[in-house]
Amino acid sequence: MGLHTIHSSPANTAGNAAAEEVLRSPERLLEIYYYLLLTRMLENKVAYICHNQNPQQPIIIGKGYLSTGQEGISVGAAYALESGDWLAPSHRDMGALMVRGMTCRQIFLQYFARASSPTWGRDGNVHVGDTSKQILFFISHMGSNLPVGNGVAAALQYRGAKNVVLGCFGDGASSQGVVHETMNYASVFKLPIVFVLNNNRYAISTPLHEQCAVEHLALRAAGYGMPGKTIDGNNVMEVYRHVKEAVERARRGEGPSLIECKTMRMGGHGTHDPATYIPKEEFETWKKRDPILGYKNYLQEQGILTEDQEQSIKARIEGEIEEAVEYARTQPMPVAEDLLKER
Ligand SMILES: Cc1ncc(C[n+]2csc(CCOP(=O)(O)OP(=O)(O)O)c2C)c(N)n1
Questions:
Q1: Phi and psi for 66 in degrees, rounded to 5?
Q2: Planar angle of CA 94, 244, 316, nearest 5 degrees
Q3: Atom number, ligand 1, closest to the C-alpha of residue 200
Q4: pLDDT class for 160, splitting at 50, 70, 90?
Q5: Best probe residue, ligand 1, of 125, 176, 202, 204 (max atoms within 8 Å of C-beta)
Q6: Which atom of ligand 1 lies at the shortest distance from residue 140's CA?
Q7: Is there a domain that residue 122 lies in?
Q8: DSSP assignment, residue 332?
Q9: CA distances from 75 to 82, 96, 282 (A)
Q10: Is the CB of 228 under 6 A from ligand 1?
Q11: Torsion angles phi and psi, residue 56, rounded to 5
């Protein structure tokens, strides 16, 4: 499918002046680039540790679930939130976790299942969150994070807070009954929540056309009476623009929106999956649309990112990641006596 088949109306730029201001600020544009690279490099490190059998390496408990090729969605969408807004992440939202303030240390503590991890070593990988930073914990049952997000949105509405929830999910999750109920309820009660659907073409090995009969999942929004848009998920600026518009709409009390971001999962479902069921040509096509490369080219064309800056951002991130791996590796594992301790 070519991107030309995407049907989308432009973001309402007149009503979205704040977003355009951010997208004109070199500092903010570079910050977005930092988060994109941080996400890619952090997950590359996770993959490296998963595949490296060196016994001196720290061991990842479980598998790595990566968002390679989809960073534009999680970073762009989370960047549209303000302080006090909440995130209900899916398992491909490392970028959003980073933007909302989770640290590399927290991620590696979680991956190594250490006692001081966000789940106290009781769970691993991306089953993570931090409610002190308004990040709900990811729930393994696909789509179940959305009704929890609705609950937070209802509480915010009840208290008169002007905050919004970002609810993230995938194309596979979008076929779950609970997701339809959540969107219907949110629309009826005009809850302050924005649904961001990453359509990465596969739910594990099931291609989109084998799980639902519409190509553009944003069409479903009409059935709930909310705005729906299909956008290019590999263009971080577009994601930011459209999600920002929806977030501000929700903040004004006008209810939820559904934003479908087209993208491609550039690998297996997890680090254990070689994805042999995906034709090589499909990866080749989408590789040319890499969200980080595209954004980097844009910044360079605009004279915002120099080669030196690029190298120094990379060096800073490498330092952050190595420090976090070393820190997490040396933290204690959980002990059985603490298992029943209340948290
Ligand atoms: C309710 C439920 N059914 C099945 C699974 C097993 N499962 C884990 S991830 C996944 C695919 C999810 O696909 P999608 O929502 O498109 O997200 P993606 O992994 O593509 O980002 C499935 C079926 C699950 N975790 N929960």
A1: -110, 160
A2: 40
A3: 20
A4: very high
A5: 204
A6: 25
A7: no
A8: P
A9: 13, 5, 24
A10: no
A11: -75, -15
Q: Could you give the CA distance from residue 177 to residue 111 in angstroms, rounded to a whole number? A: 30
- Is the residue at 93 inside a domain? yes
Nearest CA to ligand 1 atom 20: 203
Residue 334 lies in a domain: no
The 10s digit of each residue's pLDDT in 68-120 is 999 999 999 999 999 999 999 999 999 999 999 999 999 999 999 999 999 99
State the total domains in the chain.
Answer: 1
In the block, which residue shows the tokens 């059998």? Answer: 53
Cβ(211) to ligand 1 under 6 A?
Answer: no
Q: Which residues pair with 260 in a beta bridge?
A: 197, 230
CATH of the domain at 153: 3.40.50.970
Q: Which domain holds residue 186?
A: 3-43+67-100+127-260+279-321
Structure tokens at 8: 């989308």
Q: Which atom of ligand 1 is nearest to the CA of 203?
A: 13
Structure tokens at 70: 């989809």
Question: What is the structure's pLDDT at 3?
Answer: 37
Q: What Å distances lie between residue 97 and 59, 106, 128, 183, CA to CA? A: 22, 10, 9, 23
Q: What does the pLDDT look like over 125-152, one tens digit per residue?
A: 999 999 999 999 999 999 999 999 999 9
Q: Is 43 in the pocket of ligand 1 (CB under 6 A)?
A: no
In a domain, 247, yes or no: yes
